[in-house]
Amino acid sequence: MKFAYSVKQKMTIALLLFCIMGCSILIRVLEDKSIKKMNNAFLSMYKDRLIPATDLFFLAENIYEKRFLLEETLNQPGLDKARISQTSNRLENHDRNIDSLIRKYEQTLLVKPEKKYLTDLKSKLQAHRLIEQNILVMSSKHSAQEGKKMFETLGKTSFQTATQKLSELTRIQTEVGEELIGNSKFMVSGSQIYSALQVALAIVIGILIVGIVFTSNVVKIQNDKFNLN
């Protein structure tokens, strides 16, 4: 009877240990997945948010430099065709820089609103380029004053529309970045929970080991008494 009870007790302990082992493996798998997601979140923060945000800054810089260049040219005394041609070439250089930055930006992970605003920005920039060229043509064929009038009306309105789309893209960058930070904090909390569970399981295992040792000692003492009798 005692033998059967001892075997049953050992089977129960073995089953508990097996369950604890299974829980430990599951927690380890979940923790590895959490760490992987956390790593992907940090990579996305760098590759898809930090670098593109820098590209947007350089994009804005090129757009503003184009405006200042055009305005400076139109205010140039004795504006001639050579100066206009030089300005046109410099504007084209900025346009190439802008196109390169946009292509680089398109290769990053874009959320749905971001794709929409980027498409709108490309459209507005293209329209703004046509207006810039028309301003230069107007200044070349007629006078700098005619070019200035177009710059003050169509040019400034087009510029403001383009920069507004750029501001919307920058705002989305901030919002998605904050969302990634929130997800990272959540995953860190999950990792802390997994660590706490692992500590709890280690404590349970320790208690079971103490219980097994204590039970073995009790059985040994009883067997010794039985042998003495």
TrEMBL record:
Keywords: Membrane, Receptor, Transmembrane, Transmembrane helix
Keyword Transmembrane helix set for record: yes
Listed InterPro entries: HlyB_4HB_MCP
Keyword Transmembrane: yes
Domain Chemotaxis methyl-accepting receptor HlyB-like 4HB MCP: from-to ranges: 6-185
Record Pfam families: 4HB_MCP_1
Segments passing through the bilayer: 12-30, 193-214
Protein name: Chemoreceptor-like protein with four helix bundle sensory module
Originating species: Pedobacter nutrimenti
